[in-house]
Design brief:
Distance between the termini of chain A: 61 Å
Distance between the termini of chain B: 28 Å
Order of helices and strands of chain B: HHHHHHHHHHHH
Radius of gyration of chain A: 21 Å
Number of helices of chain B: 12
Strand order of the largest sheet of chain A: 2-1-3-10-4
CATH architecture of the largest domain in chain A: 3-Layer(aba) Sandwich
Strand content of chain B: under 5%
Number of domains of chain A: 2
Shape of chain B: flat
CATH class of the largest domain in chain A: Alpha Beta
CATH topology of the largest domain in chain A: D-Maltodextrin-Binding Protein, domain 2
Number of strands of chain B: 0
CATH architecture of the largest domain in chain B: Orthogonal Bundle
Number of strands of chain A: 10
Number of helices of chain A: 8
Shape of chain A: elongated
Order of helices and strands of chain A: HHEHEEEEEHEHEHEEHH
Largest sheet of chain B: none
Helix content of chain B: over 70%
Oligomer: heterodimer
Mean pLDDT of chain B: 87
Mean pLDDT of chain A: 82
Low-confidence stretches of chain B: 1-8
Radius of gyration of chain B: 24 Å
Helix content of chain A: 25-40%
Strand content of chain A: 15-25%
């Protein structure tokens, strides 16, 4: 038994390395023609050339996960303020926030986006898509995925990422009793311990903006990061600002937003993108729909409705 | 996994003879037969592995999977980072293993204490072993690592590394105590009888006669549990500790690419396979030693 196993491990690893080296030449993931979503400039201003013909985005000419329906993925549990928690509790299988009621920033955005794409409210189907599954290879179980995914050029090589629908700032949450709570500048933060959720740009903020002396702790979920904060294993939790408002208001008693990081002066501001399967025909349609929502003010209205307390956190000094 | 199986011997491997037979009964293989065996093994390997490679690489989504799991550039980028993070895992399993070997033996001895006087100790040890073998290691790590520091008790450390070592020690001591117990029970009762007849007390007999023989006999399964412990150190990532698996997950999430996991797998393979061979060798030595003695 032992012997057969070792042999098969050997065989498998040999095979894996063969596959790896074989992949060297063809490994440039972006391919020959970058899609519209992959070019960062499209994020800033959707060009006219990029807008697809109306017909290509008609509901009937699109290849969808379920015919006539727009299948939208997000992770479970879904959190406020992106997905509102109904008083009566979320409909199964949703545990906390309920994407299906159109309340909460991303839920409202999703239904507005679906409407722009020509889908009735009843034609929107939600499905649970854990973060990793949104970019795992193979057939994706969704048409679009809306899950607070920040755009990066590297990520856009693996999946299609739409133009941004929300520009966000990172912020620091601490317990009121912690010394960090009274800090007002980034320079004074270096000697504190920080944590963030994996897969978030919050971690990049710790490593490239705060540059603390102690290595950052990196948690699977924000819930575990909060457990680390409560257990005083970290002094400060770095999260996007809307999440910081939810954490301090509802999740952690006696916690406070220390401040928000100033938006980067150079380069692209961080933004959330809709995730689509690589090369999806829907990507260009989603981009033009987001463009339309920006120009008619509906995206701004949704943002104001659900994420309006943005201005009230102090901006950290350098 | 089976504790059985002999040493890795190329002749055995090719001809497909199990290592369970006593070595003494092995017959000499005529050279002709050896060559023929080798040839058949070679052709068979090429057909099976080649066939597997063709099936996988010709699958419709292979290009996607290749990019997502076998990206040479990302592999090269990840490997040094995960190797560096592996230092945390090494520290974890080395410290925990020492504590496990001690606590496991204590538990095994407690469970084996005879007589009604020791009933409470036997009961406690049994409950401990049953409990920590029942609860998944990941839960023990999360419950201790977040729960106890969360109480905010004065003087109780809140260091994640500390609680990770404690949790791994508790879980693996339960397994290891069962291995020790099996070893102790495998020692023939006449050994204790002989020791007692020489005037040794029950504890002295245990200390000088039973346990030394038992421990020697269970070294292979102990090493087996040590391999399991090495791999389970990745569970500590749930506490936010950036060890090898968390480091690879960070790269995975930043690049939306699973290749860093392959680098982690490679590190564990490189560490574990020599250990497995060592276990095989120890089993063989133990067996031939016993055969010579008997």
């Amino acid at each position: 038994m032992r012997r057969a196993l070792s042999l098969s491990i050997l065989a498998l690893s040999t095979f894996a390395f063969a596959a790896c080296s074989g992949g060297g030449a063809g490994a440039s993931p972006s391919g020959a023609s970058p899609s519209i979503a992959a070019s960062p400039s499209a994020a800033a201003s959707p060009s006219v050339a990029a807008s697809p013909s109306v017909d290509a985005c008609a509901k009937d000419s699109l290849t969808l996960e379920a015919a006539g329906k727009l299948t939208i993925g997000t992770d479970n549990p879904a959190y406020p303020p992106y997905y509102d928690i109904p008083d009566a509790g979320a409909t199964a299988p949703w545990e906390l926030g309920d994407p299906t009621d159109g309340k909460g920033f991303e839920s409202a955005f999703a239904y507005a986006l679906a409407a722009k794409l020509g889908f009735e409210e009843a034609d929107v189907v939600w499905t649970v898509v854990p973060f990793d599954n949104s970019f795992a290879p193979g057939d994706k179980p969704f048409d679009i995925d809306i899950n607070q995914v920040s755009y990066t050029a590297e990520r856009a090589q693996a999946v299609d990422m739409s133009d941004g629908y929300y520009t966000l700032n990172q912020s620091v949450v601490a317990l009121k009793v912690n010394g960090l709570a009274s800090v007002t500048s980034i320079a004074a933060m270096k000697d504190f311990k920080f944590g963030a959720q994996i897969g978030t740009t919050s971690l990049d903020t710790i490593n490239t903006v705060i540059k603390p002396t102690a290595a950052a702790k990196v948690y699977t979920t924000n819930d575990e990061a909060i457990a680390g904060l409560k257990a005083k294993q970290i002094d400060g939790l770095v999260v996007d600002l809307p999440t910081a408002f939810y954490i301090t208001a509802a999740q952690v008693e006696n916690s406070v937003i220390v401040g928000q990081f100033p938006a980067p002066t150079s380069g692209d501001a961080e933004h959330f993108s809709v995730v689509l399967p690589k090369g999806s025909a829907l990507t260009a349609c989603v981009n033009s729909a987001i463009g339309a929502m920006k120009s008619d003010g509906s995206l701004e209205a949704i943002t104001q409705e659900w994420l309006s307390d943005k201005a009230s956190a102090p901006v950290l000094q350098p | 996994m089976s504790q059985l199986g002999g040493p890795l011997d190329t002749g055995d491997l090719i001809a497909g003879r199990a290592g369970l037979r006593p070595r003494r009964s092995r017959r000499r293989i005529p050279p002709k037969e050896a060559v023929r065996s080798s040839l058949i093994a070679l052709v068979s390997s090429v057909v099976v592995l080649g066939g597997l490679a063709v099936v996988v690489t010709s699958s419709p989504n292979w290009p996607d999977v290749q990019h997502a799991f076998f990206d040479g550039e990302i592999f090269a980028y990840s490997l040094p980072k995960v190797v560096e993070a592996f230092g945390t895992n090494v520290a974890l399993f080395l410290i925990a293993e020492v504590l496990i070997l001690v606590l496991g033996l204590v538990l095994a001895v407690l469970r084996g204490l005879p007589g009604p006087v020791f009933f409470p100790l036997r009961l406690l040890a049994t409950v401990f072993v049953d409990f920590f073998r029942a609860v998944p290691g990941l839960l023990v790590i999360a419950l201790l690592g977040f729960g106890i520091p969360g109480l905010g008790l004065a003087g109780v450390p809140n260091d994640t590394f500390f609680w990770a070592v404690v949790a791994l020690t508790l879980v693996y001591s339960a397994y290891v105590s069962e291995v020790y117990r099996a070893g102790i029970e495998s020692i023939h009762w006449s050994q204790e009888a002989a020791a007692r007849s020489l005037g040794l007390s029950r504890l002295q007999a245990l200390r000088y006669v039973i346990v030394p023989q038992a421990v020697r006999r269970v070294i292979p399964p102990l090493l087996n549990d040590f391999i399991g412990l090495q791999k389970d150190t990745v569970l500590v990532s749930t506490l936010g500790v950036v060890e090898i698996f968390r480091e690879s997950s960070i790269i995975k999430a930043a690049k939306f690419n699973f290749t860093p996991y392959l680098a982690v797998a490679l590190v564990f393979v490189v560490i574990t396979i020599p250990m497995a061979r060592l276990v095989d060798w120890l089993v063989a030595r133990e067996r031939s030693g016993r055969a010579a003695a008997g």
